[in-house]
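hey so i finally got around to running the thing on that chain from the lab meeting. sorry it took forever, my laptop kept dying and i had to restart like 3 times. anyway pasting the input first so we r on the same page abt which one it is
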Amino acid sequence: MSSSTAAGFRYPYPEPERPHNFGPQCRLAPARNPFSNGADTAEDIPPVTAQFFYSSPIPIDDPLSAIATTNDPKPSRAALQPFSPGDNNALEAAWLGLASNQYSRNHDHARRRRSPSPSLARANAEKLATIAHDLATKHAEKHAREGFKRDFKRDSIAPPDGTIQALDDAAPLCCPELLVDVGLALRNSFCAVARRRQRVLDPEAVAQTVLAEMQTMRTELPPIVTGQRGRSSTVTSTSPSTQISDHVGSKHESPGQIHNAPELSNSEHPGGARVQSQTLSHPATEHKPMPVIPPKPSGADDGISGKPFIRVGTPETPVFSQPSSLSKAVPPSLTPAQSEAPKVSLSSPESARFPRQSDKKPEKSSTDVLVGVSRLHEVTLPALQMKPIYWSPVNDIATVFRATWFYRDDMRPIDPSVANQLEAGYRELKPHTETWSDELRCAVEVGPLGEEKVSHPLWPKTPDPSSKKGGDLIDPLLSSDPFCAARCFHGEAAAEGTLIPSANEDNSAPLQITKKFEHYHVIYKDEKNAFLLKPSLKPSGYYGRRPVAKIVRGMTIGIPVVRGFDYDVWKSKHEKKRAQQRTVSQEPPFAVNFHASNRDEACLACKAEKDRSQVTDLVFVVHGIGQKLAERVENYHFTHAINAFRRAMNVELNNDAVRGVLRNGQNGIMVLPINWRQDLSFEDGGPMREEDKANHPVEAFGLKDIEPRTIPAVRSMISDVMFDIPFYMSQHKPKMVAALVKEANRVYRLWCRNNPGFSERGRVHVIAHSLGTVMSVEVLSRQPTVAPSLHLSKPLQTQFFEFDTKNLFLLGSPVAFFLLLERGALLPRRGRLKPGANAADVQSSDVVGDAGKFGCLAVDNIYNILAREDPVAYLLNGTIDPMFASSLKTAYVPSASPSFLQSMGSAMWGFVPGTSPAPTNVSSPTLTKPPTMRLPSQLELEVHDFTREEIAERKALLLNDNGQIDYFLRSGSGPLELQYLNMLSAHTSYWVNQDLIRMLCQEIGRKPGRENTLPALRAMKATKRGLATTT
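ok and heres what got predicted. didnt touch it at all, straight out
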């Protein structure tokens, strides 16, 4: 058994780490700049060692540390944490892969207020045509699905010419979402500087182009007859792409023409009315085919994109892909009622009117990189946002910071705008060259006047707006915008993500940034070190100040900064000294003494780390009632509780009592929440989705129509917390169960995609709470006895889990009450042969049941854990056989901490010299001698029904290796316990109960089979007369 893991976090006996070879396949090998052989080589500028930071209350690289509880969404610069060296290299490689020469040229032309070159203008026109055609196809299909047909007036749609004035008589938009989609598409395709300076990129003008394209699709293309084949998918009429290409390719404005009225062309009347020479009413004109986005795969969306949510208007969201939040809300497998509703498919005549070309692959607008030791988060580039993968974010989207310059003393990152100014001066002065060293020596020899020549102002002087070139240098040389920094530069720009989009992002004027260290000067000492000097410290011939001479002698003047990150300095300043903490080697490649041929091979150290990080046990936690309240009160959100619960499980895995019972090969436990309630809305009478609105009568009433206006706070609390129960017992039950199955399968598929091979070697367990236990039992009752093999290409299953459940833990469960209502019983599943089970028992009709019967579960072990004061929880032993249940002793979850009396006794024994308390180990009950039981009398033997008892025992052993289902949690309040006071918090106290956490770790991680059970959890018969005697 590997005792040092990255997923289970068991460090006490670490294995000797193998050294990394820093070859091409090593995670710690520095990312190679693909542009290193370009312009930078000619200037001989060394690449910068950038470092990515994140600001999040969840420590992604140290899951054993405490989770900071804060509701402040604004990141704190002091709380920034660097990504691990391996994750940083992966992020840097992905960041450098986003850069493009076309983006760089566009940015440079726009910043210098120059019109694009003919080749660049053609490329921009093709990109705009792609955007227009794809958005037109998307909205045409959307309105066709909605049964909405808009009468577009062709004469009212004036093709945009890039000016705002042309939009005075613009046609109304088909829907408000069109302008949002256009803005999002432009943000994903052009940088902010280009959108501000190029008039053709105005969102309203592009929206009008989309409307014109929709009209072209609707009127110029002939209708498609069912069975027609051989039709070309290329638009054969004059389309907006031709107009955009003509406009962008033929017009070249000079810098002085930016704010002036456009020149009159031969197609513009002197009266001022602009007329297009090639309009939609003249289809005979020559044109170019329109490049479009290829069609989506025919397979149904399984929702495993890793983004169970969407932030409208953020640059990281793909423009033309359906958000997974929509795929979660609309199940891929339709119900009979849904299949009867009219729908539009790509093969239907209606959708065939909106052709899609597949000759051009769409440009990827963003990329996601998995980060963290547990791989629970991903960073979206270039948006620089870190978000969870497996659950919807709850105020835990973190901003990511890419830093290039740092404070020398503690390696804290410098603000991006300041860092970019430092980098711009670095590239201008080239302090890494020998020439700069000679200039510094000469400046010191000359004196203060010479030092003034090498002192560089951090911020360039703002030009006078009234001057002839007053607006040329408004935009900085290196942009801090994440999109520009990633795509328009080659790794030299620093940037920081944001959760709030800029208000004037698309305005004509650039954002007025706050200039930190505005009047400071910078003195570059060498290729790495520099000093920020405030005005009273900079060189001055008048005052005789000579800071350069002191800097050359090695003294520190002003604020010392360095170019590039030093991980060792950061660790020495910020990280705590822990003997158990996993260390990561950060030696440079040249410091490792390996043969050159070994560096081309796979890194054995990386392979060992990957093997240690392979989780063997995946735990899904299903919530119960009350999550509607979490939409208004974030502290009640289920995800926060599970994040803390996951950390507690990881900490408990390091306990000796737990580690001693883990099976060989057990390699960590991963706990993930299943938030099934987030996509359902019953408050208006049912889920108001698109397929439900079609059948929803206009006169139907909702909850607000029947709810009195009295005591609104109480009524709101009751509806948000308690109404899930009547909703489940109504016609909405199938949709609630389907939502649970779909969310669990979505998370499982995503986990298997990110962890290849888990579906073959991993084990899945389910922990359900409150109403979630009833829903889980409902699903597992119809679950196939043997789960079919997982195929990610198949549609997402909504009827049963796509994984096999090994252990089912029910917390605060009312399942027994629902079994009573359904006249059901808890039964083992026929044909489910678990380790240690009798093959004859799993086929006996007296013992097992068949799939489909409520209570006949396809699981190996069932645990019903309840707090004594929980008013919602019910016992399950009685659902097997009431007589058998009455013969068992009340079972308790073993205590993970000494009781109050034990603590007092230990303290008293400590005052007596030479004595010590008797050794007790509640976690190792094998040391306790079992009591001697009284033998039954002859009369009891004659009247006792041994056959019924034997069948009940066989059922119990198949349902749980311990021979019983129910386990009580000890309240721990001691003699001052008040049951009615504890009742108020008993139902929600499971996630912080240390006894439960230890039991879960032991039962999930132990070796399967009844011979491997813990003696403290095994069923014991209760005595009928007197007490058991001990010897």
